[in-house]
Every structure is written in C-alpha cells, then in structure tokens.
C-alpha cells in the first residue's frame, strides 16, 4: 500500500514487541479509566463493553475480554497466528489493567470534556503503538477486514456502521450529555489514528 520505495527493516525483537504491547495497552487502559471515571464510552468493542458494564454492573475488563473471544478465529484466518497471539495477549493485558487501575487512581474532579479528550489522546497513542507492533485490540476491526476480503465492502465503513450502532444504543440508555461528550472523545481518537496511522511510516510485520 505504500507509494514510496523503502527497504523493509528487520522484524521487531521480542523485547521490542514486549515493550510495545505493554506500552500500548497501558495507554489504552488509561483511556478506559478516564472514560469510566466520567461515565463516558467510545466506539468499537471497547465502547460497547463500557455501555454494557454501566447497565449490568459487570466490570469492563470481564465484558471486554468475553466479547472479544468470538473474533480470534477470524483474526487467525485473516491475519495469521503471530498477529492473533499478540492481539490475544493485548486484550488480556488490557482487561487485567482496567481491573487494577481503580485501586491505584481516583479523581476528585474530572470534567467530562477533559476525560473525553484525554481518553481520545491516550487511546490513539496506545493503538498506534499496538499497530506498530503487529497487534490490535480485536473486535470489529477484524470482522471489517474479513468482510472486505469476502465482499469488497470497505473495512472503514463497517467500523463506522458499528460505531453508529453503539452510539444509537447509548442514546436510549445513557444521558444525552454523556453521549455528546463520548462523541468528542471518539472524534479525537479517530483524528489521531487517521493522521498518524500510515503504512508507509510503519515497519511492516
């Protein structure tokens, strides 16, 4: 997909991948802390997991981990074993970290606008780190790529449609101001990914 001529660099070492996956999941888990602290959510499986956790009282980590389970077979078929294993590890680490952070961090004051913006920035940086090291946080992105391969329907459109469904569902079960601030956070995240995630600037692994 790159339109420039570059020499492919060597594959990441185990140490490089380890710090990349760990750094990425720490940043994304912090975004969940910001969102949860303000009662907000986001798009994709993480957003649906937050909404479900608010309604059910179940922990985000447990919901997120369980919702991702059906997607690993598609990940294996579409992206291979290496990507799938890295993604499974990242999802498990994120689920665990979101259970630990509430015991270490609390907010006396957290404006929803600040929470949304900080969540978008930290999630964007974390996801970029994961993409850089050949992993993801599973979920809809894998299905989107699979459908694109099978039907030609653009992956980005599938993700947008899913996000619209998450936000539409949230409109009926959460306060509208929370939905509005959550939309801000999702926009910040998507802008960061859109501007920075380019294959010609990343090591292909």
From TrEMBL:
Q: Which InterPro entries match?
A: UPF0750_membrane (IPR051461), YitT (IPR003740)
User: What keywords are assigned to this protein?
Assistant: Cell membrane, Membrane, Transmembrane, Transmembrane helix
Question: What transmembrane ranges does the database entry give?
Answer: 21-45, 51-75, 87-105, 125-147, 159-175, 181-197
Q: Where can this protein be found?
A: Cell membrane
Q: Which Pfam families match?
A: YitT_membrane (PF02588)
Question: What top-level branch of life does the organism fall under?
Answer: Bacteria
Main localization of the protein?
membrane
Q: How does this protein sit in the membrane?
A: Multi-pass membrane protein
Question: Is the keyword Cell membrane in the record?
Answer: yes
PANTHER family listed in its UniProt record = UPF0750 MEMBRANE PROTEIN YITT, UPF0750 MEMBRANE PROTEIN YITT-RELATED
Write down what this protein is called. YitT family protein
Organism annotation: Thioclava arctica
């Amino acid at each position: 997909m790159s339109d420039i001529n570059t020499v492919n660099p060597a594959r990441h070492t185990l140490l490089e991948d380890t710090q990349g996956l760990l750094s990425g999941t720490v940043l994304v888990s912090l975004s969940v802390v910001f969102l949860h602290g303000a009662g907000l959510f986001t798009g994709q499986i993480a957003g649906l997991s937050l909404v479900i956790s608010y309604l059910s009282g179940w922990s985000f980590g447990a919901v997120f981990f369980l919702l991702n389970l059906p997607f690993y077979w598609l990940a294996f078929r579409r992206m291979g074993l290496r990507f799938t294993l890295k993604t499974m590890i990242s999802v498990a680490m994120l689920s665990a970290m979101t259970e630990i952070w509430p015991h270490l961090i609390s907010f006396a004051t957290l404006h929803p606008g600040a929470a949304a913006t900080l969540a978008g920035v930290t999630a964007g940086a974390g996801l970029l780190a994961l993409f850089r090291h050949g992993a993801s946080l599973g979920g809809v992105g894998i299905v989107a790529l699979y459908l694109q391969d099978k039907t030609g329907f653009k992956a980005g459109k599938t993700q947008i449609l899913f996000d619209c469904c998450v936000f539409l569902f949230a409109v009926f079960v959460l306060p509208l101001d929370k939905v509005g601030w959550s939309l801000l956070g999702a926009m910040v995240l998507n802008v960061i990914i859109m501007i920075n995630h380019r294959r010609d600037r990343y090591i292909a692994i």
